Amino acid sequence: MSLAQAKGLEFEFAPGNHDVALGFGSLRVSIGNSSIWSDEEGNGIPWTWIDLLEQLARAWPFLKYEESAPPGTYGLALLRTDHFASPDFDFEPSAQATRDSYIFRRRHNLATGIEGLYLPNFSLLREGRNIWVVSANIAKLLDYAQTFRTLSELGEALARQVASGSQQERSRLALDAWRNREPSLDATLQIKLGSSRLVAEMVPQGENLATYFEALPNAENDDECESSLLVAARMSEAIPLDSRRKILDLLRTRPGTGLSTLLQQIASEAETKLPNYYLHRPYKQGEALAQWARERFGIAPEAKADPQQVLERLGVEVTQHHFGIAMIDAIGCWDHRHGPAILVNLDGRHAQSLVGRRATLAHELTHVLVDRRGSLPAAEVFGGIVPRHPEQRANAFAAEFLLPKSVAVERIHKATDVARTIERLPEQFAVSRELAAWQIINSRAYAELGNDEKALLRSWTPNTDSAWFFR
Questions:
Q1: DSSP class per residue in 157-189
Q2: Helices and strands (H, E) in the chain, number of each type
Q3: Which residue has the higher pLDDT, 221 or 375?
Q4: d(CA 156, CA 161)
Q5: Spatial separation of the C-alpha atoms in residues 86 and 101, rounded to whole Å
Q6: What contacts 3, CB < 8 A, 6 or more positions away?
Q7: What is the DSSP letter of 317?
Q8: 341-345 and 330-333: which strand pairing?
Q9: Alpha helices in 228-319 (DSSP H)
Q10: Backbone phi, psi, residue 155, to 5°
Q11: Does an H or E element contain 137, and which?
């Protein structure tokens, strides 16, 4: 039978007639036209699938609620290739990091639970209201709710097959594990926070975990305990405890004003303007969205954009604070209890300067427009432990929104003194030299520049992992 589809994710399970209590049958897994698990002819694989039922039951809470990979790793690459090394870090992993990486893979890669049969990676990693499904040759972002309905139907199909056979101790335990796969509320929140140490440090002794993080579902928005406090605590785990508590206290004071009609309207429009996620890199999405946004908000190509004015026009409160740390540049919150609001950190590595604050607010504008109903449904910590793809998209949006490439290219082509023209761009558009340099370097004009101009731009980009534009 063909089970429910989730935007291209499909399971086909045909029950067999022997070893029924061990879940024997033929199983095929695919996304669209691409097979993840199948035989050489693209058909289902005949096997006893009780292992998969047991794996689904064990991993269910983590597939459903865990969004953070072990520190120092890039979760998608880890799940897709089994390689620990992160492109962002150059170090030999510690024994603890290797252990955490192994546990993470076991929880999220369904293939690791199948004994006696080699299967390609089939991993899932949640990202807000979306979920990544990755294998060796596939990486797609799907709807979380639909995908879990599909996984649930697969589990139920396997459970029916196991239950229809003569009961054995193993089949009985597998069925019990599947029927009791949902974690308690406290367990759910600890998984969402991603660290038992974080819970132990932050939550006062005797305090109710759900109440402290305002993570109780309500009638208006029963969104699986989503809470801006919960998200902010998880994403800011790397910063000192006092700063984390200060951030949470600030978030608690933000009133829930609700989304303005204009924000809802423009956000709906913005989502339709994004190029297909599976065909374009995140930076392409960010550029396309920024070009549309400038036009939608009536900002002429040569004009200096004001992201704070745009945010406030959409009904998003912008406030400035001193967090006492440099790592975090801003916190965005937009759950049903707080916001929508952007809290800018005047001590932030970038936000302490005027041009950095402008880029920070342009970055946050991206999340407000297209990530509230997707990867970041409650909050975002700019500089914290955040999903990579939405951050790459927001960085590219900020650069293009503040300084359109087309304007930079046109000015360079018309210039009699190219170096002087380049030097004037940061001041005219109120952006950092680094942002301006990356916009030119990543444009068609760069190849036409002389060695002196190229050297000038490279001197403005001392860090290859630019905070404002990277691919």
A1: HHHHHHHTS---HHHHHHHHHHHT-SPPHHHHH
A2: 19, 11
A3: 375
A4: 9
A5: 11
A6: 10, 11, 12, 13, 150, 153, 154, 157
A7: E
A8: antiparallel
A9: 228-235, 241-253, 261-273, 282-296, 307-313
A10: -60, -40
A11: none
- Report CA dihedral (191, 193, 199, 201) to the nearest 10 degrees: 150
Residues 161-195: tens digit of each pLDDT? 999 987 789 999 999 999 999 999 889 999 998 87
Residue ranges covered by each domain of the chain: 9-179, 185-253, 405-459
Which residue type is seen at 38? S
> Both tokens of residue 188?
């759910």
Coil, strand or helix at 38: coil
Q: Each residue of 302-345: pLDDT tens digit? A: 999 999 999 999 999 999 999 999 999 999 999 989 999 999 99
Reported for 440-445, long-range contacts at CB under 8 A and 24+ positions apart, including other chains, are: 440/405, 440/408, 440/409, 440/412, 442/405, 442/469, 443/405, 443/408, 443/409, 444/409, 445/408, 445/409, 445/412, 445/413
Gap between the terminal Cα atoms of the chain: 42
Element containing residue 392 per DSSP (H, E)? helix 388-402
98, two tokens: 């290797």
435 and 399 Cβ atoms separated by less than 8 Å: yes
Q: Nearest-5° angle of CA 309, CA 251, CA 264?
A: 45
Strands (E), 334-467: 341-345, 379-382
- Angle between the N-to-C axes of helices 418-429 and 433-441, in degrees from 0 to 180, rounded to the nearest 10: 130
> Which segments of 323-436 are extended strands (E)?
330-333, 341-345, 379-382
Laid out side by side, the sheet with 330-333 consists of 317-321, 341-345, 330-333, 379-382
Q: Which residues contact 201 (CB under 8 A, 6 or more apart)?
A: 241
Q: Kindly give, in sequence order, each residue whose CB lies less than 8 Å from that of residue 61, ignoring residues fewer than 6 positions away.
A: 181, 182, 183, 187, 188, 191
CA 99, CA 94: separation in Å to the nearest integer?
Answer: 9
Burial of 23 (0-12, 13-18, 19+ CB in 10 A): buried
The residue assigned the tokens 């405890």 is: 241
Angle at which helix 50-65 crosses helix 144-163, to 10 degrees, equals 150
